[in-house]
Specification:
The chain is 75% helix and 0% strand. It is mainly alpha-helical. Helix 2 (19-36) crosses helix 5 (71-96) and helix 4 (53-65) packs antiparallel against helix 5 (71-96). It has helices at residues 2-13, 19-36, 40-46, 53-65, 71-96, 102-114.
Amino acid sequence: MEFLQKVLDFIAKFGGLGTMGQVSGVLMLLIASMKVSFIKPLWDKLGAYQALVAPMLSLVAGLVMVQPFSLEAAVAFLLTGLGAVAFHELLDVVKAMPWVGPAYKKLIEIFMALLGGNK
């Protein structure tokens, strides 16, 4: 919980981000930590269901943050989590295009690593 509080404090101080941006930042850090921590064996067991973790965590964040919770809030938070998954998939598509050179591919790899993307 101390780690999570530090993450939330950092994101709160990081100016210019709206609520959804802050939620995305927290989710990104949580999922990235799952891939490198003692939770990694459990993360690996999720297999294809790993793509559902971000939307579900986002929905949980919405339940905690928004009172009273509404259908509109649920959809907004689910879309926030799905957006992170879609962004990683788009980066994979761009890397596969023939006109993308090695320098751009390396830049995409670095960006995906920062966002907790698959190695």
